[in-house]
Design a protein that fits this description.
Largest sheet: 5 strands, parallel
Strand content: 5-15%
Distance between the termini: 12 Å
Number of strands: 5
Structural class: alpha/beta
CATH class: Alpha Beta
CATH superfamily: P-loop containing nucleotide triphosphate hydrolases
CATH architecture: 3-Layer(aba) Sandwich
Shape: globular
């Protein structure tokens, strides 16, 4: 069985598009767990990751629930891909909570200019400063198993690249 894949990257790096393509084209029973959707289940008060201590606490809670879902689906013979922005020691939390299942953390890292281009081509969801925060967190992330610079790659090529990982 394939490892559980955690797909991380800054805002507008292609996590959703690539994750869904991977799950539908390269998996027998593909499941996509979107960390943003899981975290938004906490409605009141909802804090974004860049909102200090409470933002980090809510992100950790989201990681915990992402892991519960991933574990459950994995035990049902599903290929699991989790979409999330990792920072601080969240990769270590994924590794600890998903053990002993095999896990592969893949970081998508287009250039900052490409991130801005993509962000500005869609309806506004976060500010440029918030996007820069997610980008800087990804630059500092040293716990990914693989990094793909995907500024000029198509989403299909990226999904194929992930499917070809050992």
């Amino acid at each position: 069985m394939k490892p559980i894949i955690v797909l991380t990257g800054p805002a507008a790096s292609g996590k959703n598009t690539i994750g869904h393509l991977y799950a539908t084209r390269f998996c027998q029973r593909g499941v996509v767990i979107d960390g943003d959707v899981v975290r938004q289940m906490l409605r009141q008060p909802h804090h974004a990751p860049w909102d200090g201590t409470e933002g980090l606490a809510q992100h950790r809670l989201g990681v915990h629930h992402n892991c519960l879902l991933a574990h459950s689906f994995y035990l049902q013979d599903c290929d699991v891909i989790v979409l999330d922005v990792l920072w601080m020691n969240l990769a270590a939390q994924y590794r600890a909570e998903l053990a002993p299942h095999p896990l592969c953390i893949v970081r998508l890292l287009p250039t900052w200019e490409e991130v801005l281009r993509r962000l500005h081509s869609r309806p506004p969801s976060i500010t440029d400063d918030e996007a820069r925060w997610t980008y800087d967190q990804q630059l500092q992330l040293d716990s990914a198993d693989h990094t793909l610079e995907n500024s000029t790659l198509s989403p299909e090529d990226c999904a194929q690249w992930i499917a070809n990982l050992p």
